[in-house]
Amino acid sequence: MKLFCVLGIESSCDDTGAAVIRSDGTILGESLASQHAIHEQFGGVVPGLAKDAHEENIDRVINTALQRANMSMEDVDAIGVTVGPGLEICLRVGCNRGRELAMKYNKPFVGVHHLEAHILMARIPPVKHDNNGGEQSATYDEIVQSSGDRAMDFPFLALLVSGGHCQILKCLGIGRYAIVGGTLDDSLGEAFDKIARLLGLPVGGGGGPAVEALSLDGDPHSVALPIPMQRRKDCDFSYAGLKTSVRMAAERMCVERGVESPERLRYEDKANIAASFQHVAFRHVEIRLGRAMELVEKEDGIRTLAVVGGVAANKELRRRLNALCSDRIEPWEMLVPPPRLCTDQGAMSAWAAVERLSVGSSDLAEDQEVFARYP
Ligand code: KG4
Ligand code: ZN
């Protein structure tokens, strides 16, 4: 099998990422400039500032990824760039640079769908450490013929839980997805971010890790919170109501303790709130996902689950979904990318491009646009 290498670029939100990946899944070099420090004081991503930071960092990030891979642009066989969904002015920074490079060096180009890229990370083969094949250049025909081993085959079910999205999808093939469930309001990542803000935890780059860490010191059954949408027997999510319940519980606690705002609560109280929120938020996932699994198992014989997106980095979620899969009468196989590859970074654009190219699909660099919304 002829190996090829793809340079991937990601700039859809507040991280500027680039990576060079080989078609067998080996990440040869990567670089990520996070903007956490810039947005921290605003409690969320400020698009204009994000765009400026992308512009400032993009060339350095790309060059660092290439250097770490010990490669120059000439050695790269193709370029993959996130083109949506995301913040339009941010997407444009990465897309423009990717297009320029593809045209200047005459390389095949792939405009990557960010959600597909999250999902496909579950198919990346476990990292191998040999370093042969990095230098050779493949022709486009060789690239198309070289689709190799993947960690899992289509079809499979995917739970995509990130800051921007909260979906259950039936994944049938590259570019072929059917939505089984979505969110009626907030995404799971957004709920984590809002709880982090309520409790005065650091939110730069997402509050999820802070809420997860605090939960370890709390009792998940100490604060009673209703599980969302108990009466709706479908696979959709809703997190807005839970967020309100958490805020009301925190405010009641403030009155009891005589403090003026949830940020001022004692560490133990905050930990109990965080742990209880996380417990119910994941219970909601288990119920909706369990129903979707039932459905696709019966209809399509699917028994593989991919858990992807930023929240998939959460250890407690991984543990609970692992149990959900193994406790079934006919156990499911579950695949989750390493935590570092769950959140946004350049390797996802690179790997999605490897997958697209492997089935003979690519785009015209000169015509590529960006899409804030990208169904
Ligand atoms: O995939 P991602 O990096 O960006 C989007 O495409 O949205 O996901 C970011 C989201 C944020 O909401 C962040 O709080 C959440 O993922 N997240 C976590 C954890 N790590 C990141 N949520 C819970 N636990 C974590 N460990
Ligand atoms: Zn993402």
TrEMBL record:
<keyword id="KW-0479">Metal-binding</keyword>
<keyword id="KW-0012">Acyltransferase</keyword>
<comment type="similarity">
    <text>Belongs to the KAE1 / TsaD family.</text>
</comment>
<dbReference type="InterPro" id="IPR017861">
    <property type="entry name" value="KAE1/TsaD"/>
</dbReference>
<keyword id="KW-0819">tRNA processing</keyword>
<feature type="domain" description="Gcp-like">
    <location>
        <begin position="26"/>
        <end position="125"/>
    </location>
</feature>
<dbReference type="InterPro" id="IPR022450">
    <property type="entry name" value="TsaD"/>
</dbReference>
<dbReference type="GO" id="GO:0002949">
    <property type="term" value="P:tRNA threonylcarbamoyladenosine modification"/>
</dbReference>
<keyword id="KW-0808">Transferase</keyword>
<dbReference type="InterPro" id="IPR000905">
    <property type="entry name" value="Gcp-like_dom"/>
</dbReference>
<feature type="domain" description="Gcp-like">
    <location>
        <begin position="151"/>
        <end position="351"/>
    </location>
</feature>
<dbReference type="GO" id="GO:0005739">
    <property type="term" value="C:mitochondrion"/>
</dbReference>
<comment type="subunit">
    <text>Homodimer.</text>
</comment>
<protein>
    <recommendedName>
        <fullName>N(6)-L-threonylcarbamoyladenine synthase</fullName>
        <ecNumber>2.3.1.234</ecNumber>
    </recommendedName>
</protein>
<comment type="function">
    <text>Required for the formation of a threonylcarbamoyl group on adenosine at position 37 (t(6)A37) in mitochondrial tRNAs that read codons beginning with adenine. Probably involved in the transfer of the threonylcarbamoyl moiety of threonylcarbamoyl-AMP (TC-AMP) to the N6 group of A37. Involved in mitochondrial genome maintenance.</text>
</comment>
<keyword id="KW-0496">Mitochondrion</keyword>
<dbReference type="Pfam" id="PF00814">
    <property type="entry name" value="TsaD"/>
</dbReference>
<dbReference type="GO" id="GO:0061711">
    <property type="term" value="F:tRNA N(6)-L-threonylcarbamoyladenine synthase activity"/>
</dbReference>
<dbReference type="InterPro" id="IPR043129">
    <property type="entry name" value="ATPase_NBD"/>
</dbReference>
<dbReference type="GO" id="GO:0046872">
    <property type="term" value="F:metal ion binding"/>
</dbReference>
